Amino acid sequence: MPGNQQAETQQYFDRFAEDWKRKGSGALPARVNIIAQRNGIALDVLASLPAPRRVLDIGCGTGDLVLDVARRGMDAVGIDFAGDMIRICEASRAEAGLERARFQQVSVFDFDPQGESYDLISAQGLIEYISADQLVDLCRRIFPLLAPGGAFVVGSRNRLFNAFSLNAFTDMERKLGALDAMMIEAEAIAMAANGAAALAAAEKAARSYPQPERHPETGVTVSVRYQYTPGELSRLLRSHGFTPAAVYGAHYHALPPAVAKDWPQLHAGLSEAIYRERRSDHRLLAQCTTFVLDVRRPA
To answer: How many domains does the chain have?
Structure first.
């Protein structure tokens, strides 16, 4: 399965690289720019670090985050195994004249850092396409690449949202017997005093949720797109030496997905407003399709 999944993922992103570029640029009207939201969170975390110099973006897509970091005067490396994505990255880098941005077509599992370490490593829209065993391998690879005190900023499809989406994903969780446990974790997060306490509560409440063999259509034509809850992922990262520092929500849903499809401009406007003003508000996390964890390598 992992090999087939990786091949499917590479084929998909090679085929739709130009579409991904349009999504990231905000060129699609009445659509939530989830790529920009996740990248913006990574830039927020970067701004919180003392004197960062070097950034690595894993699964960099069309390179928007890498280029933004280079514009801020830092060295930035983007890696992606989809060749068409990297070709777009290189064209954008040349057009912008950003010598501090570098791109490489390679899987993270084959990447050679050549002795470099990084103050921030970002992985957005990546872990949904790798197996549980590969995720463990990823954690082991990332930790030594981070400079002491550095941040790993990792995004995940939010499985807790399935309990609130009121659609086929909710029905899937009901059939798996996972809904009650998910509600307990969502409640623990919402009732916490702050973001750090929310992560601790989520880790304590999270269960080993059964993974579905199949899931409803997601818009990306691969066999499996994995989801995690904040507590699951935070606990896994902590077990590999990282210290969870903060959690952010992205692609907030004030409307259930079925209603959002009928009112795309309203949905996009509400989602972008919540992102601008309240993206670090843990109480809204369960209604976000995506969450981003900021975890640190101890100094």
So the answer is: 1
